[in-house]
User: What shape does this take?
Amino acid sequence: MPTIAIVGAGPGMGLSIAKAFGGHGFEVALIARSKDKLDTLVTRLAESGITAEGFPADVSDRTELTAALSQAAERFGAIDVLEYSPHSGLTMVDPPDVTVDNLQPAIEQLLYGAVAATQAVLPGMLAAGSGTLLYTTGGGAINPYPMLATLNTAQAALRNWVFNLHNTLAERGVHAATVAINLLPSTTAPEGVPHADPDDIAQLYWDLHTRRDRPEQLVSA
Assistant: This one.
């Protein structure tokens, strides 16, 4: 059976993506820091008939992340799809206030973590001549929000690199793309706040995997 590894798995988008792919016969490797959270997700997926297993790791610890993905590949045989979406929080920093120190955490988690995760699974995909790499960003990766300068800088760097992956890996059978979510992924939201059901958004990830025709999907109101 094919396997998707979800890095940064949580009860929102991570669970919805797991259900979307699991509903199409995928087994699921879940990676996040909290073992308790992972155990809860595995139980919820099992209730839907989806085989899943958790592999605790901090995405900011590249050695730990690489080891978790290696364990997942050994457990399931291979990683056919990587989805990378760690939650880095919404630290408010205006563009003139960006420094190397306050930018570094976002770069470490979003960009360096994504590179490390990709390097852990890409050799296997290239050897197989197939695979999908999906990365979640926000709308600020495309049109930045002034109050989220550090987050958007890291997201934009990730987006640029993924576009380069898309342009260079397609002929080798590997599809790379980003999903830029520019609304609240939730079934409910305060009045006036754009939102969408995570289960509906997750279907766009499946569409990117199956159609393999574009490097980016913008999710907006």
